[in-house]
Amino acid sequence: MAESGKRRFGLDNKESWWEDPLPDARNRGPGGPRWPIMSVVFLLPFLIPVTRSLLAESAVTPGLVLTAVLVYAYSACYAVFPFFFRLERRVKLAFGITMNVLGLASLAVAGGSAFVLLYGTAVLVFLVPAAWSVIVDLATLAVGAVILLAQGRFLADYGDLITVASITLAMFFMGNLVRAVRRLERANEEIATLAVANERERLARDLHDLLGHSLTTITVKAGLARRVLESAGDIPRAVEEIREVEALTRSALSDVRATVSANREVSLSAELVGARAALRAAEIDADLPHAVDNVRPEFQPTFGYVLRETVTNVLRHSGAKRVKVKLGDTWLEIEDDGTATEVVAGNGLRGLSERLAAVGGTVRTSARPGGGLVVRAEVPLPEPSPATPAVRTEPAGGLA
Questions:
Q1: Sheet with 322-327: strands ordered across
Q2: Strands 322-327 and 362-367
Q3: Mean pLDDT of 250-268
Q4: Whole-model pTM?
Q5: What is the C-alpha to C-alpha distance for residues 78 and 74, in angstroms, rounded to an integer?
């Protein structure tokens, strides 16, 4: 199937002319096991008069036997042609050419109507690519016209030949309509498969971002409560930390339900509050913005995911003592002073790249001199309208 900006399903490009019909022919074909019985019904207008003429002969001659063999071999080909859909193109093409040759031989030997050619030309339309069916069918009709001329029957039977050509043309367009429908069915199946895969990826990414941050924060706060009880015995503070763990657990459960139902919205301001609490519990100094007003509203949910995932990585792996977050209208930058000396891409960074790519942005991670990482997410500013004045924004910042 050719693609040039969009899928094509008809005969409006070269590739479709040479493409095999019925892409799923291994499972589906015209007629099925009932076709041999139906084919006999279609063959009766041809077989009955020929059989009568053969039986009317007084003696069995080699010519009579040859005529019978040609006629019934031609009929047998029409009865079994659906079974050739499962074979290679060259086998189908050879079968179609052989059948048309038998039809021409039957026309020449039996001396019947030119309608006999219709069985072969119609079969070829459904069996081989459109280009091959046009080539072979035109050749068959041309040879049929020569046979009628040689037998002196052209003026009497040329109308039948024109009728055969017309019906074959109608079958050609019907066959290609069937092919287009089959291709559309296949495209719909692919779309459904991709939709399921995309939904799975969305759930996996969202649950990774959500549960990774929530469970990390819960672990940090539970550890803090344990240390408070073990070292100072400060029960009120430990109880406060446990209450926050309980609240985080309820929030995470609610977020999981919303994520599964695709109704969850991430707020950058809420993520800043959560990051401040998580970093404080881990005893990491946080230099965080106090407001997100200078960030474009359409980018805030995406930057919220970036902040959540990056802070989670800081809590898990960095060993940092200080984290600094800066915001701009179309960018977010998070810097820590941890021990990392190189960037190791994991599921989290890949998920962030996918989220930024969905809005046309990028996320870059680099190592700081002396240790630590800098994560910068940025979305290009839309082309400004000539009537819209430029507005300069300064990054927000502040010590939490």
A1: 285-287, 322-327, 331-336, 373-378, 362-367
A2: unpaired
A3: 66
A4: 0.50
A5: 7
